[in-house]
């Protein structure tokens, strides 16, 4: 279980990104972080694994407070946390299989990682993960030959190769079309359910969050202003999270996107007749 206690982050400029954030994420729960730009969503995710150093507070993963760890122990504990990035963070010139195996770098010796000679069990696990994310036939392709949705699937498989106890997911669908976004979110939620993995997902798409997340936390100006089930996200709550102007603009954008998708489906159906 992940437990965050009074987590705060203030930068040297005096800007406060997080202020007294506390929450718990039990085993198997998928939590969606929503909020306007600058609300602190990405900062919160990066403070958990200390890609950003918190100013105050505690982050407990099981019985270990990650905030207090030195560099060597932090490296070991990061093995327990899988990270999935918006921009995929793949090594473009390497194959899909090599990118997935990079998730095992924290477990092998320097020379094995340098020569990319991984143990047979790691290779077998990587093949199984590629099969699970639907990319087994692409194992030998270079990462730069893949579509955006395929790259995100490689990122998921790489994170799972760590055998993590927690997934941190930073805007996994921001660069994807609506259909691919739903496929990626469905894959993530299925995998978390299969493995009992808790996950925190920073997601900008409110309808997608409502469809796939078990719990929603809304951030505004670095503070939690909502924590509850997706069905409790009323117009009033969303206005509290985003502000009247921003939420109305987002809603109009969603409506326009839905109309465009409906028109595209109608055109495809007409062509099929």
Question: What features would you describe in this structure?
Answer:
The protein has 273 residues and is an alpha/beta fold. The chain has 3 domains: 1-80 and 167-181 and 196-242, P-loop containing nucleotide triphosphate hydrolases (Rossmann fold); 93-163, no CATH class; 244-273. It has helices at 41-48, 71-78, 96-101, 110-115, 120-132, 148-161, 178-195, 206-212, 235-242, 244-272; strands spanning 2-10, 16-25, 30-34, 56-61, 64-65, 81-84, 166-170, 199-202, 215-220, 223-228. The N and C termini lie far apart (53 Å). The relative contact order is 0.16. The model has no long low-confidence stretch (mean pLDDT 86). It holds the Pfam family ABC_tran.
Structure classification: alpha/beta
How many alpha or pi helices? 10
The CATH homologous superfamily name of the largest domain equals P-loop containing nucleotide triphosphate hydrolases
- Main β-sheet, in a few words? 6 strands, mixed
Low-pLDDT ranges = none
Order the strands across the largest sheet as they lie in space.
6-7-8-3-9-10
CATH topology of the largest domain: Rossmann fold
How far apart the termini lie comes to 53 Å
Number of domains: 3
Estimate the global geometry from the Cα principal axes: globular
User: How many runs of DSSP E, i.e. beta strands?
Assistant: 10
What is the CATH architecture assignment of the largest domain?
Answer: 3-Layer(aba) Sandwich
């Amino acid at each position: 279980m992940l437990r965050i206690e009074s987590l705060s982050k203030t930068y040297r400029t005096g800007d406060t990104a997080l202020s007294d954030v506390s929450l718990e994420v039990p085993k198997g729960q998928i939590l969606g972080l929503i909020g306007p730009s600058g609300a602190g969503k990405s900062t919160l995710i990066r403070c958990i694994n200390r890609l950003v150093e918190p100013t105050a507070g505690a982050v407990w993963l099981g019985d270990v407070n990650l905030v207090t760890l030195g560099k060597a122990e932090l490296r070991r504990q990061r093995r327990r946390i899988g990270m999935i990035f918006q921009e995929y963070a793949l090594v473009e010139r390497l194959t899909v299989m090599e990118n997935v195996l990079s998730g095992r770098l924290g477990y092998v010796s320097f020379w094995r990682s340098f020569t990319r000679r991984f143990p047979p069990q790691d290779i077998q696990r990587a093949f199984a993960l590629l099969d699970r994310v639907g990319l087994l036939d692409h194992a030998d392709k270079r990462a730069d030959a893949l579509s955006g949705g395929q790259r995100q699937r490689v990122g998921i498989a790489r994170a799972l190769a760590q055998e993590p106890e927690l997934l941190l997911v930073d805007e996994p669908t921001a660069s994807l079309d609506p259909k691919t976004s739903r496929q990626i979110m469905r894959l993530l939620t299925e995998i978390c359910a299969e493995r009992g993995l808790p996950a925190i997902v920073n997601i900008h798409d409110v309808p997608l969050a409502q469809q796939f997340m078990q719990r929603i936390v809304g951030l505004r100006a670095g503070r939690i202003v909502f924590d509850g089930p997706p069905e409790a996200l009323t117009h009033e709550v969303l206005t509290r999270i985003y502000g009247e102007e921003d939420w109305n603009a987002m809603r109009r954008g969603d409506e326009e996107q839905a109309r465009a998708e409906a028109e595209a489906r109608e055109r495809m159906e007409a062509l099929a007749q």
